[in-house]
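hey so u asked for the seq, here:
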Amino acid sequence: MSEQHSPPDSVGILVPSGMLGAGFSPDTITRGVALGADVIAVDGGSTDSGAHYLGTGVAKTTELAVRRDLRLLLAAASTAGIPLIVGSCGTSGTDSGVTWVAGIVEAICREDGLELSVATIFSEQHPDQLIAELRAGRVHALPPSSPLDAATLAGCEHIVAMMGHEPIERALRAGVDVVLAGRATDTAVSAAFPLMRGMPPGPTWHAAKIIECGGQCTTDPRSGGVFARIDSTGFTIEPLDPDAACTPTSVAAHMLYETVNPYTMREPGGTIEVADATYTALDHRTVRVEGSRFDPAEQYTVKLEGAAVTGYETVSFTGIRDPQVLGSIDEWAEFLQKTLTERVETVLELPTDAWGSDLRLYGYNAILGDLDPAPATPQEVGVMLLISADDQQTATAISKLANPLLLHLPLPTMSYLPSFAFATSPAHIDRGPAYEFVLNHVLDVDSPTQIFRLRMPERSDA
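ran it, structure tokens below
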């Protein structure tokens, strides 16, 4: 890629979907390129599905789906002569996630005869270095977290730092065709190229926020891709599905997504401010946005994400249709917990603080619990019992003790033995280690690129 020396009038960004591996129609890419895309950007990760993926360093997306999406994107980038940027590779942005995606890209280039230069950016952090930064007073808790200690850092299976646009821009300035980044802010993936090309930060960061999830800012969130064009005073945005539309409401509403305040959002280098932004419908499917700004921060900070093993889990699931049990389901659930606790103390000789249980009554109050008004008697309830302990053997043993209770436990007042229905056989499923996010902290850095390792390209020749 040749670097342009004077800023262009505008920059077009094609976002094919909210996440690599989610799938999109090939027509999405065709339309985006025809509209004059200067870059293709797509997020490859998320923390939405919990800490398991960071803790294990594996992706939640299947390789077949990621390979399918990448094959379309790499072909389009090669044909159009525009860069492709993927952020938070492998779901959590671990080094193994970046390496995994890079291996898929290399294989596709070889199979399809594509000559593309590929840069990788690694964002995993070593606990020892972060402990030194902690002791130097450069690590700070985000609300509502408590101050960090060295033991928490040392106990993490993996720690990633969330990069801003600068490491990605650094790779783009070197002229590479493909950038595969570790953990990055969703917005940085789309903001890097237009910022490099001289677009104003206010419209650029706001546009990047709106398009981060693809079609979620349209009237049909399932539709996949969107196209944004950023210029000196604002940006326009339209869906790439001809049956979907962007409206002022659908576009403005995306500032509500994953933000504390719908008018501001913090990035590593500053804050997006959109309180004065205006949203104007140019036609029935295209929106123009102006008035956004970006306020630089005095201190550049990088968010840290870390996952640690908190124990081992075993889960069981049974279904209840017995009307007498369902008529007193709260009493039955309390009786189950009491009976199981007594059996664990008697048979396994374990105190109550040596294990834990999470009993969920699906179809009754599993989601909100006591926050829900007391519901009417349900017709059926699915009972999920999740047992946690310090080791898998103990968690499994407790689940096996619970087995007859989940199959036949009557209420204390019942004169017969009810029968429930296990969803699987065996009734228990060992889940293995359970992970928890244990970091909600930021690190002060002197340079936006200093803690991210850039590996510059090896030519992927056919």
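The mean pLDDT is 95. DSSP finds 13 helices and 21 strands in the chain.
lmk if thats what u needed
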